[in-house]
Design goal:
Elements (H helix, E strand, L loop, with lengths): L1 E5 L4 H12 L3 E6 L3 H4 L8 H8 L4 E5 L5 H8 L5 E4 L6 H6 L1 H22 L4 E7 L12 E4 L2 E4 L18 H20 L2 E7 L1 E3 L11 H10 L4 E4 L5 E6 H13 L4 E6 L6 E3 H12 L5 E4 L8 E2 L4 H7 L7 H14 L6
This protein binds nicotinamide-adenine-dinucleotide.
Nicotinamide-adenine-dinucleotide (NAD) binds next to α1, α6, β5 and β9.
Length: 345
C-alpha cells in the first residue's frame, strides 16, 4: 500500500510511519515541524523524529503544511491508498491563547486534506485523530465518586459514543477537533469515502515530546528525570485511561483491513488501563526512584475530572484490544527519555 501520514513527525504519526513502513508499505510523511513553535519551546522536539524517520526504509519525508493545498497535493502525488491524518495543534491552553491558529490547523487543515483526497484519490481510507475533548463538559455531568487517590465514575465504566457533543463548553481545541471529526464523518456520508474517526483519550509512548500543556505523561517523566517542578491543576485525582501508541496504530490497521465503510470509535486504554495524576507520580517514584517537585494550581477550563473510554464498540467491530500494560508502557517511555537525555537537558 501507499500511505500518506500527515503530522508524521509527531508522536502518533512517527509510530504509524515506522510501523507501516516496516511492513513494506510506501509511506509519505508530511509535516511542517511546528510542534515546538505551538508550545513556545525554543528547542527542537519533533525534528528528532523527522531525522529518525529519514533514515528508515520505505519512508519519504516532505516538509509542508496541511493548510496549504499544493503541499498536500504534492504529498498525495498521483494518489495513495490510505491517509492517516495526525497533523494537529494538540494543546488545550494553546487553543485558548491562539484560537485562530488552532482553528486554521485543526479545522481548516483537516478540511483541506479531506478535499485534496476527495479530488485526487477518493477511494483512499481516511483516518482522523479526534479526541475525547469533543464531548467537553458533558462528561462532567456523569456522577462521580472520590475514592483515595482518584475520582471514578459512579454508574458507568466509561464514556461511549452516545455521549452528546453539543450543549456544553469544550475549549476552542474541542471545537476545532470536533469540526474535523464531523467533516470526516460527512465525507463518508456525502461523498462515499471510507473514513474513520478515532476519539482518542490519552496516548503516550516513546518519541513523545511532552509539555505542560500537552502530553502530560511524557512531561511528568521528563520533569522527574531532569528534576524540574511540575504544576498539578486541581487536586491530582483526575483520572485518564491511557493507551500506549503502538496499540493505537494496531486499531488503525484493523480498520484499514476491515470491510467497514465508515467508523466512529472512542479509544483509549479503557477501564482496565487508568491512572490518576497522583498515582502516576507514585508510579514514577517506583520506576525512576524520584518524582517531580509538585506545585498545585487552579483547575483548568473544561478539564474533565474523569475520562475513561468505553471501548466496547471498537473491541467488537475491529476485534481490537489494548495489549501494553500501564507499567510496561511507562517504563518504555522512561527508558527512551533516559537514552535521549540530550533532547531534554
Ligand atoms: N497524544 C494524545 O494524547 C492525543 C489525544 C487525543 C487526540 N490527539 C490528536 O492526535 C493527533 C496527533 O497527536 P500527537 O500526540 O501525535 O501530536 P504531536 O504534536 O506529537 O504531532 C502532531 C504533528 O503535527 C505537526 N503539525 C502541526 N501543525 C501542522 C501543519 N499545519 N501542517 C503539517 N504538520 C503540522 C507537528 O509538527 C507534529 O509533528 C493530533 O491531531 C491530536 O489533536 C492526540
Amino acid at each position: 500500500m501507499k500511505m500518506l501520514i500527515t503530522g508524521g513527525a509527531g508522536l502518533v504519526g512517527s509510530h504509524a510511519a515506522e510501523y507501516f513502513a516496516n511492513k513494506g508499505n510506501k509511506v509519505i510523511v508530511l509535516d511542517n515541524l511546528m510542534r515546538s513553535k505551538i508550545f513556545g519551546y525554543d528547542k527542537d522536539s519533533v525534528e528528532y523524529n523527522w531525522k529518525y524517520l529519514g533514515k528508515l526504509k520505505n519512508i519519504e519525508c516532505i516538509k509542508g503544511d496541511v493548510r496549504n493545498e499544493s503541499d498536500v497535493k504534492k504529498a498525495l502525488g498521483g494518489g495513495v491508498d490510505v491517509v492517516i491524518h495526525t497533523a494537529g495543534q494538540p494543546g488545550v491552553l494553546a487553543s485558548v491563547n491562539n484560537p485562530t491558529e488552532d482553528f486554521s490547523i485543526n479545522a481548516f487543515g483537516t478540511f483541506n486534506v479531506l478535499e485534496c483526497v476527495r479530488k485526487i484519490c477518493k477511494s483512499a481510507v481516511f483516518i482522523y485523530c479526534s479526541t475525547n475533548k469533543v464531548y467537553g463538559e458533558n462528561v462532567d455531568k456523569l456522577a462521580l465518586d472520590e475514592i483515595g487517590t482518584r475520582y471514578c465514575f459512579k454508574d458507568v465504566k466509561g464514556v461511549n459514543e452516545q455521549m452528546l457533543t453539543d450543549l456544553t463548553a469544550h475549549t476552542p481545541y474541542g471545537v476545532s477537533k470536533l469540526a474535523g471529526d464531523i467533516y470526516t464523518q460527512e465525507y463518508a456520508q456525502i461523498y462515499g469515502m471510507r473514513t474513520a474517526v478515532f476519539r482518542m483519550s490519552c496516548i503516550y509512548g516513546t518519541r513523545q515530546f511532552g509539555f505542560e500543556d500537552q502530553g502530560w505523561l511524557a512531561w511528568f517523566v521528563i520533569a522527574s528525570i531532569f528534576d524540574k517542578p511540575i504544576t498539578i491543576y486541581g487536586n491530582g485525582k483526575q483520572v485518564r485511561d491511557v493507551l500506549y501508541v503502538d496499540d493505537l496504530i494496531c486499531a488503525y490497521e484493523a480498520f484499514i483491513n476491515s470491510k467497514l465503510n465508515s467508523g466512529l470509535y472512542n479509544i483509549g486504554g479503557g477501564p482496565d488501563k487508568t491512572i490518576s495524576l497522583l498515582e502516576f507520580v507514585e508510579q514514577l517514584r517506583l520506576i525512576i526512584g524520584s518524582h517531580p517537585k509538585i506545585n498545585y494550581g487552579e483547575w483548568r477550563p473544561s478539564d474533565q475530572k474523569v475520562y475513561i473510554s468505553d471501548i466496547t464498540k471498537i473491541k467488537k467491530e475491529l476485534s481490537w484490544q489494548p495489549k501494553v500494560g500501564v507499567k510496561e508502557g511507562i517504563t518504555r517511555l522512561v527508558d527512551w527519555v533516559r537514552a535521549n537525555r540530550q533532547f531534554f537537558s
